[in-house]
Queue: 2 jobs
Job 1
Amino acid sequence: SQQGEEDPQALSIQEGENATMNCSYKTSINNLQWYRQNSGRGLVHLILIRSNEREKHSGRLRVTLDTSKKSSSLLITASRAADTASYFCGPMDSSYKLIFGSGTRLLVRP
Amino acid sequence: DAGVIQSPRHEVTEMGQEVTLRCKPISGHNSLFWYRQTMMRGLELLIYFNNNVPIDDSGMPEDRFSAKMPNASFSTLKIQPSEPRDSAVYFCASSPGVSFADTQYFGPGTRLTVL
């Protein structure tokens, strides 16, 4: 079964707006990683947040983690057309496996 | 570094045929992962190796699937016999080692179509 589940499944926004994607998971984790996948390509690592961290920033990306609710969110600020992609969260458990969800398909309209 | 290399990029075969997918991880990486991606099931972890040893193959769907890593620079995923429901994009990924902080680096994938 999938560990990470992203919400919403699809998101369409205007360029310049912020995009927020959520991730829920089921068991204890060591860290949680967010990846991006452009159409027809492999996944690209975006950011990693450890289980003892609550928030992390990387450029226009902001990730939060709430281990009590077993949830994480990815915020992309000032979105650009190039941000159009699918975004996956990968909770990593003690077995060092990343178990991805189905992803959120983000469309940023110019 | 060239990144993770997968071959072939596209494979079209007929049901019942043997299919072999290949992966060359990033040099120096100790862990290697095989994933399968479909619209219906999303991205599934099939198997992963650490130092060429299979650590967890619980995601391998059935005995028709097998994976090997004969050395640190090469891995294969074999499907024999192939079935139409095996059609998917298969990704290989590698990471520096067994560490909870490791990032995985994905290859471009092999798109498999079984007719």
Note: The CA atoms of residues 82 and 108 of chain A lie 8 Å apart.
Job 2
Amino acid sequence: DAGVTQSPTHLIKTRGQQVTLRCSPKSGHDTVSWYQQALGQGPQFIFQYYEEEERQRGNFPDRFSGHQFPNYSSELNVNALLLGDSALYLCASSFQANTEAFFGQGTRLTVV
Amino acid sequence: SQKIEQNSEALNIQEGKTATLTCNYTNYSPAYLQWYRQDPGRGPVFLLLIRENEKEKRKERLKVTFDTTLKQSLFHITASQPADSATYLCALDISSGYSTLTFGKGTMLLVSP
């Protein structure tokens, strides 16, 4: 079992550009959540996808959007990048309610 | 406002001793609480989950307590080893079981030989 895989591992973008990050959940998991982790902070919840719909959303602007595909994989899109979007972006998958989340290794995004 | 607070300073202990990490929260009523370990540049790794009706949970050298009256969880690592050095994150699920987590900032634990 490959666990949760994310791509790419590192990315450098320029202010104003758009970026797409990808996530494949752990085998058997149907729910994908995305988190942003700034340096020295805990992960902050962005949104969660289940059955190809956004089920929950944290306090992030509309520049952050996502998608879930029929095979449960997911994408996170960020438009009009700001310097403050530089962070480690984490994808987590889970199966049933009230269970632990399995995290990927993250994508380190640097906006210059 | 809602807050989750963990030991703000790094915790330095000697190998073999017990490490105790604290997680306090305000204005939440979580159904359960989780602890994760995170190494530099890596994603968090799940350690333990404890439900609101459980007082204590154990797994090998790890023990978690959950006091919903005090709004506090304590995380213990007994017989600590240098390999236990990492950042430990406390997380609450406030989404009624959808597994959307609110994290504290984490506590860095350093175990010296």
Note: Chain A has a mean pLDDT of 94.
